[in-house]
Amino acid sequence: ERAQKNKTKKKQAPKEWKEQYFFIQEKGDKPKPVCLICGATAAIPKEFNLERHYKQNHGTIDKKYLKGSDLRKDKITREEIIKESLRIAARNLGDSKVQERFDQISPSLNTVMRIEEMADDVSQQIRFSASLCKYFLLTLDDSIDNTSTVQSSVFICCVNKNFDVIEELLNLESLKSNTRGTDLFDELKASVELMNLNWDKLKSICTDGAPSTVGKNSGGVAGKVLVTFSNIIHQESLLRNWGFHHVMSVVVQCINKIYRIIVNSGTFWKSCEVCWLSKGKMLQQFSSLMLKVIKFLQNKKELPDDCALLKDDNWLNDLAFLTDITCQINSQYKTTRSILFSTLVQSINAFKMKLMLFKT
User: Is the pTM for the entire model greater than 0.70?
Assistant: First the structure.
């Protein structure tokens, strides 16, 4: 038995063979030395055979990479492999912008560790500021990204006893399933509990104005007496009291039908710069794709009554008016960001005069 162990030990390749001849030992019942350069195997694991193979086939390596130099050490790192894989993926995508974005990524371990440490430091600062604040306010927003995934974001505004105000992003999560009011509230609750915030200090919530966030029974801010605010862009673009329900209902029904089809087939997709909750952008995109929408629904044999309305002149006139006015309102909103209230009043009055000119 001892002789068998010594025999097996003699057959094992020493570690020096890897550095001198680039040979390693195979795994298995009958392991053989394998050349790391060409993949050849040696029938007999003796140093003479390995040295002969190395000098005959790879003799120039010692001249290019001197023994003991840094060039012979392992220079391949995970960061380089990841970066090169991203470059290959960018070339296959054929998008120059994606390639530029990948080139800007620094996957080195030190950079990643610094980013993680900075993120942890920001989280600790938010926890510390929230623990000392007298009151805090939350902003809840849900929007759809370019992959049709709902992104729910929660922002916090803390006010301490010295009236110092701190505003930070509290949490950002992807909602894979539903976006009901209860789902948004669960996300909001998880964000608050993650930072160990006291619910009694919450005095106000601002939402994006979507029905799933402002519902009084099951909305994301229901169930607690708060001072609530809603984003003006959604309240203005909904236009519920304008008497254009016959237009919006058809547009929304067509879009929902198309969306359910393209999720399964991957056809008929045109990206939108902002979320589809902005009805001005939605109507503008729908109007620009009117002929394609009709052709698509006819080919799929879907919504025949709505297709007939899409060809009606009176309905098209109402659609054109609704599209123009919502785009004007959304454009007005973008010009009134981050301005004083006095300037806001002047801007709104000027917009009213513009509407009067449109009327004449």
Answer: no
